[in-house]
Amino acid sequence: MRRRQLTRRRISVRAVTVAALTAAALGSAPAAQAAGPAELRLVPLGDDYRTGLQEQVGYWNLNRLSAAALNGDGAEAVAPAAGWDDTARPWAGGGKVTRTTGKLVMRMRNVDGAGAADGLAACTATVVKSRNKSVVVTAAHCLRVNWGLNGPLNQIATNVVFIPGFRGENLPRVAPGTDLNSGPAIGPDVAPYGVWAATRAWWTEGWAAQANHFNNNDMAAMVVDNPADDRPIEEVVGGGQPIGFNPVRKTPRTNFGYPTVNFKSYSGPNFSTTTGAAVINGSPNVNNVPAAQQRIYDGRSLLFSQGPSWINREWWWDTNSDLMKTQLSPGASGGPWFKDFDPVVGEGVLVGVTSHFAQSSTGGLDAIAEAESRAPSPYMAGTNFGDQEQAAFETAQSVTPGA
């Protein structure tokens, strides 16, 4: 499932460089793959690097961050009256996960630069241990998506920043119509470890060949830098999460994210037919979930789910993604999937990221995905880290930020 996107008026954009991008038409066989990971250059190297780095971070103020990071229906979070369970609950512990997991926000634009679609979006991402101490991992679809058509289904990210340890409870909500080009600076109450620009990113060669959810290699590794802090991000947050590849599958996982979107939440609320506002009004929702189990997400808080995982099957063969029962929703895309997670220290081995959700009884692509995987809603798919994901990570950890 794609990350949350909020449509805004078009704003002029700084060019980005994309290496080795190819795409296939919807439902067709993947195109010939690139020879290795594909790069997205977000900040120019050379003499303009420091200026570009500052511009990338400076694009974001509290108003623009609020528009990207919080839900679009204006409702604050409401917990399920029947209580939380292992399919979703707020993370009440501390530890490394509260420093290494964070909010990723970006501006999405048409690849051709000429279409009308131009909006803000949010995902989840994680700091991992790396040689350059500067690598953050997320889902590839948070940066690039192409369903074989131009327009809103063929987009790429720009102005990408990462906020580790995001404190969404301190982020003011902006009213509709607020000018996003100006606003207060993002302070340590919201970004306790700073605001980090994604300067370069690499997604898997499979995603470069077909950048949609008919492809299961939905992972990207980014290098981040901060114009206000000369230290690498691992030194600032106290170390990254271990990362692993080709793990044993069909074993328990613990995953984290910032669920944001209510209309794509299996146990989400109803919506007012007059105002469109999210409401829990005593009636079952569209998926026939009773009011006591409904909840409203606002994108402010880090939630997690835990339990068994199983291999995703599509078109009768195993894929490079795993499935889990969950009540999370978009906004959690790109969030970490850990094996051997220790809740006391908040650390585990990162072996996947959240890719998409199948949480609706209303048909469409969700119904197709559900039939293919033979898994009842609500569940989500996470990219299992294999050879392609390792290649993207190795490329990212081999570079020096700014060089």
Structure overview:
The protein has 403 residues and is α+β, with helices and mostly antiparallel strands. It is built from 7 helices and 20 strands. The protein has helices at 49-58, 62-69, 97-100, 205-209, 233-237, 365-373, 387-397, and strands at 4-7, 17-18, 38-41, 89-90, 101-110, 118-127, 135-138, 144-146, 154-164, 196-203, 220-225, 253-257, 270-271, 278-279, 303-307, 310-314, 317-325, 336-342, 347-358, 379-384. An 8-stranded antiparallel β-sheet has the order 4-15-12-18-19-20-17-16. Strand 6 (118-127) and strand 7 (135-138) form a beta hairpin. The chain starts with a strand and ends in a 6-residue tail after the last helix. The model is unreliable at 1-33 (pLDDT under 50).
Pattern of helices and strands: EEEHHEHEEEEEEHEHEEEEEEEEHEH
Shape: globular
| Count of distinct strands | 20
Measured as a percent range, the helix fraction is 10-25%
- The value of Rg in angstroms is 19 Å
What percent strand? 25-35%
Helical run tally: 7
Largest beta sheet, briefly?
Answer: 8 strands, antiparallel
Low-pLDDT stretches are 1-33
Could you tell me how far the N terminus lies from the C terminus, measured between alpha carbons in angstroms?
A: 34 Å
Structural class: alpha+beta
